[in-house]
Amino acid sequence: MKKVLFLIRSLEGGGAEKVLIDYLNGLVKDCCNNKMDITVLAEYNAGIYINELPNEINYQYIVKKPTLNKRRVVDRFFKVIPSFILRKLYINDNYDIEISFMEGNQGKLIACAPDSVKKILWIHTDISKLEKTDFLNLKSEKRCYRSFDQVICVSNIVNKNFVKKIDYHGNITTIYNPIDKEKLIKKLEELGAEFKGDNEQKRYVYDIIP
Predict the structure, then answer these.
(1) CA gap 45, 63 in Å, rounded
(2) Strand ranges for 112-205 from DSSP E
(3) Interior CA angle at 128 toward 141 and 124, to 5°?
(4) DSSP H/E element including 158
(5) Which of 44, 97, 157, 186 could in theory staple to 118 by disulfide, Cβ–Cβ 3.0 to 4.6 A?
(6) Residue 97 forms beta bridges with which residues?
């Protein structure tokens, strides 16, 4: 059984958060078959998607009740404290695969993981256009992101600009955000629309775990 860790800022409403829920729902079968033991670690215990986590997924968090002031303090703490210290503080188990499902702080917790851990970074935004980041400077940002075994970007332009800014020469690929065709077809049918396609076209394959 593979132990897999997903890190995300929170489960508040947003594109990346919804995509994570979609992927986790697609991986539930493997959890039930004892192929995977999946944990989601959120920096902040907040968000409408917490209740949508499948029962088979372990859920943990760092900040229980994230007020605005707490978020400011934690963000500053993460920005100045070395990654290896952050990891000792917040990663309390051993995993085979660790996935930072967003750029920034979550990546720091994985960057200094042991070599035995498969480290995956998911980039959902064009980092070349960010005015502020979770890093002290570009040098520390590059050092963090270059430590990952694999980088996944949600579009080709995100991919291109990540490579350019980070000067990344590792394993990087583009995987567009998934569409839950079953839910989409069901919604269309509820609206009186007709889906013209065979069963094969309805199928979505979740293929993010190596």
Answers:
(1) 6
(2) 118-123, 150-153, 171-174
(3) 85
(4) helix 156-166
(5) 97
(6) 4, 118
